[in-house]
Design a protein that fits this description.
This protein is mainly alpha-helical and about 270 residues long. A two-stranded antiparallel ribbon has the order 1-2.
Length: about 270
């Protein structure tokens, strides 16, 4: 074949190959580059596990709770009362180190999620200094958090020690559920007070609950509790007229409590479970 013919044939083959490449489907053209790119892609490094302040607090609390459960199991197994009392005084777990560990974590990261509930776990079992430090962090950084409901619950168990904080939470928290929980907690304590002033203040707080817009739907449990507490305080206390009761006797004859008005009457309430 002559040189000129070879050149012409080569030119034609080049054009033909180019045309075939142009006519190839997009998927086929993309195979080689994509494969090369995938091979060149470095392996993604495993993401490090982040241990939060809440995680650390939960771990400390879980350990202390487990230890206390073991202690309580041993205590319940002791039948003799004096022996049980001696065991309790000698072997009860010291929670001060646990509370301090929680406090140290809270001081290092006071605004972290879980700090309020973590500190709340220990406020009823700590010394005065730890209590003050815990409440300073809680009130300073978590007053408006929903976690405050746990704080309120713990303060309620402290027999008046936490009342001043409960009053502040009720007045200054902008979390409606927290304010509701604090209001009914304070009311429940005050209405059992021996002083008329305390009872009066407690009833006023229960009425605040009843007057809360929409609470009968948003929190029917609080609404029902407030309603019942007001009824008991106004009708079932010493010196109040007993509400009339209607029942039937052994023979099925209906009678009323008011039928015995003016007579000494003994009412025996009983039940079988």
């Amino acid at each position: 074949m002559k040189l000129k013919q070879v050149a012409l044939l080569g030119s034609m083959l080049g054009v033909s190959s180019f045309a075939m490449a142009q006519d190839a489907p997009a998927e086929e053209k993309a195979v080689a580059p994509a494969a090369a790119k995938e091979e060149a892609k470095p392996e993604e490094a495993a993401k490090p596990v982040v241990v939060t302040t809440k995680d650390k607090m939960d771990k400390i609390i879980a350990k202390a709770t487990a230890e206390r459960n073991v202690f309580m199991k041993k205590l319940r197994a002791i039948k003799d009362r004096n022996e049980a009392r001696a065991f309790y005084q000698k072997e009860q777990p010291d929670l001060a180190p646990t509370v301090q560990a929680l406090l140290d974590l809270a001081k290092a990261d006071p605004t972290a999620k879980g700090v309020a509930s973590g500190l709340a776990w220990g406020i009823s079992s700590c010394n005065k200094e730890q209590f003050k430090e815990s409440m300073d962090i809680i009130m300073g950084h978590h007053l408006h958090d929903s976690e405050m409901r746990m704080v309120v619950s713990r303060l309620a168990r402290m027999r008046g020690r936490g009342d001043s904080y409960l009053q502040k939470i009720r007045l200054y928290s902008n979390n409606e559920q927290v304010r509701q929980a604090t209001t009914i907690t304070l009311a429940s304590g005050l209405v059992r007070s021996r002083s008329p002033e305390g009872k009066s203040e407690g009833l006023a707080l229960f009425r605040t609950i009843l007057a809360w817009p929409g609470i009968e739907k948003s929190n029917p449990r609080y609404y029902s509790a407030a309603k019942s507490a007001i009824f008991v305080a106004e009708n079932l206390t010493i010196g109040k007229m007993v509400p009339d009761i209607v029942g039937t006797d052994e023979e099925g004859v209906e009678f009323k409590l008011s039928d015995y008005k003016g007579k000494v009457t003994l009412i025996d309430f009983w039940g079988i479970w």
